[in-house]
Fold:
Amino acid sequence: MPFEIRDLSIHLGGTPVLHGVDFDLSSGGITGIIGANGSGKTTMLRAMAGLLPPETGSVLHQGQDIAAMAPRARARRIAMLPQSAAAPPGLTVRQLVARGRTPWMRPFLPMGPADRAAVDRALHAVGLEDLATRPVDSLSGGQRQRAWIALVLAQECDTILLDEPLNFLDLPHQTELVGLLRDLGKTRSVVMILHDLTIAARTCDQVLALREGRLVAIGPPDAVLAPVPLRETFGIGFECSALPDGKPVVLPAAL
Structure:
């Protein structure tokens, strides 16, 4: 199990945000976290990354409590890409991706051959080798998001957490990135927050639904992305159907 979440409660500024959440995530594949704004999705992801201390309960990663791990050790296990990450002006794609090697490098020493090879592999995986010397702020939205994914890959963790990785991307770039994420899910455990439920249905191996900081459901997409659990999650009705080719479509019933 990459994650075992046990009776997890999180408070932010004294306000309860997560309430006794309890679930397991199996190894490998893609897990999507869904829920309305304010349901606790980002808080859940940050708790899984070890960035928020539990008020009660625990987060175990591969059987170990992440609260007891040193930040450097945790960063060798779990990589997290926050929403709307920004690079300093003028930073090149290669320089950005190289920052993913920080958990593995000795302080104040330059990158070694293994680090440079990891950066090269990450750039190749996202198809940005030809843009490695370009400033990140000169890239298109889709290219920029791929550069950040490459940083995460260069970190060489078995578990990757992504906060709304498709946010602000147009449809062609969303399609491109979804294909990349599917490839990542073949060799790693990927947990990501998604708003598009049809993409979640077509991309995820399992889906976790939250409402007001409480777990509503967790399971395969066809079980969670169904009318009853979706109404319990969002408070509105949904139509869940399939196209002639069998691909699922999930839409609010009012549309």
